Amino acid sequence: MQAPTPNVAGVLLAGGRATRMGGRNKAFAAVGGESIAGRTVRVLQDVFPQVIIATNAPRDFDRFGVELVADRYPGSGPLAGIHAALEVTRHPHAFVVACDMPGLDAGVIRLLLDRIGSADAIVPRWDGDIEPLHAVYAARCLPVIEGCLAAGRVAMREFLPRIVVDYVSEGELRAVSAAAASFTNVNTPEELAAVGGRFEDA
């Protein structure tokens, strides 16, 4: 196991409303016998010296023993979670991931971290689209994020054109064998079933 990456925090965004999962929190769906949130936190702890969960349901995530932070702009989606996490990070950059990626891979994360330079964000391109919730953001983005949130421009696609983004090509990402798994997300019961996942009753 490699040493944690200095000067970068790991952030799990866990603020979704689970509407497409019938009201059940996909972060706690089990894939391979482990909850998505639990596995994600474990991967982040292996890579980063600081791990933060951005959530408005802190009692649900106490069990993981990492820092929890709530949105200052509730109801404003992932951008509000990124804002909340960047406000408390001790580091100049943060890797941010959604809570619905059960195959998150440290090798793919490290490829993105290797690109840290003058850009404000490092965002992968994958499957004909971008993956802004599996990406690296500089803490210096905070004023721009705050301006977007205050103006009601909460979509990631409204925020990204306002900063300098280093987009990582799909071809480069595919050099890492686990890339496809790392970018797979599960938003519906059908997508969860496709990766062998299920909700385990207490």
Count the DSSP helices: 9
Oligomer: single chain
Helix content: 25-40%
Mean pLDDT: 88
What is the total number of structural domains?
Answer: 1
CATH class: Alpha Beta
Poorly predicted regions: 18-22
Q: How does CATH name the architecture? A: Alpha-Beta Complex
Distance between the termini: 32 Å
> What structural category arises from helix and sheet content?
alpha/beta
At the fold tier of CATH, the topology name is Spore Coat Polysaccharide Biosynthesis Protein SpsA, Chain A
Tell me what portion of residues adopts beta-strand conformation: 15-25%
The SSE string, one letter per element, is EEEHEHEHEHEEEHHEHHHE
Query: Could you state the CATH homologous superfamily?
Result: Spore Coat Polysaccharide Biosynthesis Protein SpsA, Chain A
Per DSSP E runs of 2 or more residues, the count of β-strands stands at: 11
Main β-sheet description: 8 strands, mixed
